[in-house]
Amino acid sequence: MAFAPFLLSLIGVAVILQNIPTIAFFIVLIVSLLSFLYGIYILWASLSVLIEVTEIIGTIKKEKEEKIIELLSSLVEKSGADSLFIKEKEVQAKFNNKYLKKDEGFVFSVNKKYDIPISINNASDKMAKKVEVGLIFPKDFLIENTSNFSIFTTEKDQIIRFNNEVVQAHESFIKGKIGITFLGVDEYKIYTFIKGENVKYYNFNFKIKVID
C-alpha cells in the first residue's frame, strides 16, 4: 500500500523534468510532494504496528515461560521431587543494600533521584539457574531505563525484571543500579516475585514510603 504514493511521486518527478508549463509544473510538484509525504506516513504507521506486535508477542512468550515455570514448580512439589528445587527464600534479592522480604520498609524523599543497587543472593548449596526477580512499580515512579533490567509498562504499572543465567551456591550477584525518582508523596506496596529454573516460585509485598 505504501508503494503506490512513492510510485506516484516518482512519476511526478519524471514529469517535472520534462518541459511543461509553469502552472502544470507547480501542480505536479505539489502532488508529488504530497504523495511522498503520504507514503512516509503509511510507512511509519506500518512500522509502528510492527513494533507493537513484536512487543506483544514478546510479552506473551514471556508470560507463557513464567506459567510453565510455575506449573513445573507445582508438579515437582506434588510429585515429592522437592529436593530438586532450591527452597523458598534461599534465593533473595537486595534492594538498596537490604534484603527484600514481606512487609520490609524503605523510606525515600520525593522528587529526588536515587541510584538503588540491586543484587541477587543464593544462600543454598546448589547453583541457581535462570533466576528472575520481578518488581511491579506504580507509574508515578520515574524509572531510568538501563541495560541491566527489562521494563514493561501497562496503564497502571511498570514491571521491572532482573534476570541472571546462573548464581553460584553461597554467592551474591550484583545486577547494577536502578535509577528511580519518586514523583508523589505516598506509601506504596510493591509486589515482588522471585523464581528460576530450579528456584521455587514465591511472591510477597514490600513497602516504599515517599516523604517530603
Description:
With 212 residues, the chain is an alpha+beta fold. The protein folds into two domains: 1-84; 87-211, Immunoglobulins (Immunoglobulin-like, Sandwich), CATH 2.60.40.10. 34% of the residues lie in helices and 42% in strands. It has a six-stranded mixed β-sheet, covered by helices on one side. β10 and β11 (199-211) form a beta hairpin. α1 packs antiparallel against α2 (22-79). The N and C termini lie far apart (55 Å). The mean pLDDT is 81.
Give the helix/strand layout.
Elements: H1 3-16, H2 22-79, E1 91-95, E2 98-99, E3 105-109, E4 113-122, E5 128-138, E6 141-144, E7 150-153, E8 157-167, E9 171-182, E10 186-196, E11 199-211
Parallel strand pairs: 3-11
Antiparallel strand pairs: 1-2, 1-4, 4-9, 5-8, 5-10, 6-9, 7-8, 10-11
In brief:
The protein is an alpha+beta fold.
